[in-house]
Model the fold of this input.
Amino acid sequence: DAKTTQPPSMDCAEGRAANLPCNHSTISGNEYVYWYRQIHSQGPQYIIHGLKNNETNEMASLIITEDRKSSTLILPHATLRDTAVYYCIVRVASGANNLFFGTGTRLTVIP
Amino acid sequence: ETGVTQTPRHLVMGMTNKKSLKCEQHLGHNAMYWYKQSAKKPLELMFVYNFKEQTENNSVPSRFSPECPNSSHLFLHLHTLQPEDSALYLCASSQDLGLEQFFGPGTRLTVL
Done:
């Protein structure tokens, strides 16, 4: 699976959009971009994933660049409960079973 | 209960004890996983089961012994652990291998 690079930490004001970047310059054509987050002392939580097109669900939006070498997770209106470590993971879909979480980005939402 | 549950949530054990961690998923998934999360380290995949069959053992020491009696239940049997085995042990499940995984809350294990 391709390696990802994320900033170690970010701050965001409550109510503002949080934009979390991820670089995955070695991504292969059949690899998806997944995002998970882990709130302190809890298990990781799936957020969203995508292949080429931008994706949106009730939690977040995922913007993938045209060359697929980077992506951005957007939390449109960050709340204090969004404070967590966010992991960007690149992997193939069916047949693979491993998620390499790396060290992620620690997002702190500030009141 | 819904989702993925784990018991106990906290466990303290001595190095000579034998204990078991339990995971149950109520999602109808076919694949289940054990992960280990040590302080300030990334999650480490330990074991993978698909349709009750073990598909991956990620070079885990034999003092950790998994058991998957059916697709809904997963156990991790522990014996003669070391203090460095203290960590958060997470269980996850997915509909099939390769799809998004749903995690339980974890068991915080302390080995004295």
Q: What stands out?
A: The longest strand of chain B covers residues 18-25. DSSP finds no helices and eleven strands in chain B. Chain B touches chain A at residues 4, 31, 33, 42-43, 45, 48, 50, 55-56, 88, 90-92, 96-106, 108 (CB under 8 Å). The two ends of chain B are 32 Å apart (CA to CA).
